Amino acid sequence: MGSQSFETTTAFETLRCVDCDEHHDPAVVTHQCPDCGGILDPSYDLSGVELTAEELATRPFDSMWRYEELLPFPRETAVSLGEGATPLLACPSLAEEMGVEAVYLKDEGRNPTGTFKDRGQSAAVTAAAGHGADSVALNSAGNAGQAAAAYAARADLAAHVFLPDRAGFTQKAMTEIHGADLRVADGEITDAGDAYWETTAAADEEWYSTKTFVTPYRHDGKKTMGHEIAEQLGFESPDAVVYPTGGGVGLLGVHKGVGEFRDLGLVDDRPALYAAQAEGCAPVVDAWESGATRHEAVPATEIDTACNGIAVPDPGASPLLLDAIDESGGGAVATPDRAILDAAVTVARSEGIEVGATCAAAVSGAFELAERGVFGDDDTVVLLNTGAGNKDVDTLRAHVGERETA
Ligand SMILES: Cc1ncc(COP(=O)(O)O)c(C=O)c1O
Ligand SMILES: [Zn+2]
Q1: Is residue 2 pLDDT above 50, yes or no?
Q2: Ligand 1 binding site (Cβ under 6 Å of any ligand atom)
Q3: Cβ-based burial of 4 (10 A; exposed 0-12, middle 13-18, buried ≥19)
């Protein structure tokens, strides 16, 4: 790998290790901290950034790269399929049911491969291309693998994608249709992770990882969800954001993104962040409720949820997540699959919006939080619909069928 064409934006200064606080040169260091193996976070000097509401209003709402100054790489070098710039849809029926001023759904299903994973892969594959990689590799629950296959194809790189067998048909099929090398592991995302590590270690050439928190760039791409939400609300931070949480990349991204807008004076505050999980795999919620600073892994035999994207039993970045939730004044909530799938059907019927089974955990989580009296009646609540309903159509249809015959 070479670094000759590795171009960065002016404000992007270093990669900061979240564990040992050492700073590293992004032209040289590609993945985790060379000193301690910790997660690296792109660190920006915003003092020279002049991004105003007026300036943003002159830019077309066409992709996440319109926030170029706050991203690691210049837009002209981006490996892009027009990701981001998704609608924020008002959901008046949900607002009424939850007893709040407004509910909005950030519809990430409108992304090129149908999920918010496109934002992270656009940033990470841009880094891979800039570092002169020939191929990218990752394990994923499904959607990130499909996204990586698409962006690798766009950048003319090979892709090696490790998915658990429970990943959906669409994700597996599209990964192969994009020309990636698909490997399916028996079991869970952690088993796909084991296969990934064993195979990459034995590979002849270097595979550039675009795996969660192994590359420093996925949460940085996803922070544009935070930028967009704030801009779409007229440069106001919502009171609460409820996010279907697996590895927590998107939640940390939203926290970072709105934080940058606050530091630039574009918004006054940050939203309270709520991690929503399925009861059948809720390590972050369990840790939050017990006051722990990191999660305990859920044993594979105890995972019991149809929500594939958040069936993440061992989210390595949980200390960061728990910190962000705490700092934001938010919380964590788990709901049973039945309530989650019901919520997807409710949104499809009352608002006309197609919500993925995984994503519906945010909707049922918000219902539960409303029930517990967490929201105020003048609150604005944003729910992340991280992926399109048609990604999980089998699960949703089976649920509707069961309800009708019950
Ligand atoms: C649709 C969907 N939502 C949410 C998640 C969880 O993502 P995160 O790692 O950001 O918590 C995933 C991950 O696979 C997903 O596919
Ligand atoms: Zn370190």
Answers
A1: no
A2: 115, 141, 143-144, 212, 244-250, 309-310, 356, 358-359, 386-387
A3: exposed
Ligand 1 center–CA 231 separation, angstroms: 23
370 Cα–ligand 1 center, Å: 23
- Write down the residue that tokens 């962040």 correspond to: 273
Strands (E), 279-323: none
Amino acid letter for position 162? F
Q: What is the DSSP letter of 207?
A: P
Contacting residues for 138 by C-beta, under 8 A, at least 6 apart = 144, 145, 148, 160, 161, 162, 196, 209, 210, 211, 212, 214
The residue whose CA is least distant from atom 3 of ligand 1 is 386
Contact by Cβ (8 Å): 332, 301: no
The pLDDT value given to residue 3: 45
pLDDT exceeds 70 at position 1: no
Given a cut of 80, whether residue 283 has pLDDT beyond it is yes
CA neighbor of 331 nearest in space, from 321, 340, 341 = 321
Sort strands 40-44 and 23-24 into parallel, antiparallel or unpaired.
Answer: unpaired
Which one of 1.20.200.10, 3.40.50.1100, 3.90.550.10, 3.90.1150.10 gives the CATH number of domain 88-115+217-405?
3.40.50.1100
Residue 340 is encoded by which pair of tokens? 């989650």
Band of pLDDT at residue 204, cut at 50, 70 and 90: confident
Q: Are 271 and 279 in contact (CB under 8 A)?
A: no
Lowest mean pLDDT among 20-34, 146-160, 392-406: 392-406
Distance (Å, whole) CA 148 – CA 158: 10
> Between β-strands 135-139 and 158-164, what pairing exists: parallel, antiparallel or unpaired?
parallel
pLDDT digits (tens, 9 = 90+) for 260-280: 999 999 999 999 999 999 999
Q: How many residues does the chain have?
A: 406
What mean pLDDT comes out for the span 139-143?
Answer: 96
pTM, rounded to two decimals: 0.97
Q: Whose CA is nearest to atom 6 of ligand 1?
A: 246
d(CA 138, CA 165): 15
Residues with CB under 5 A from ligand 2 (ion): 17, 19-20, 22, 33, 35-36, 38
How much distance in Å is there from the Cα of 313 to the middle of ligand 1? 13
Ligand 1: which of 86, 108, 116 to mutate, judged by most atoms within 8 Å of the beta carbon?
116
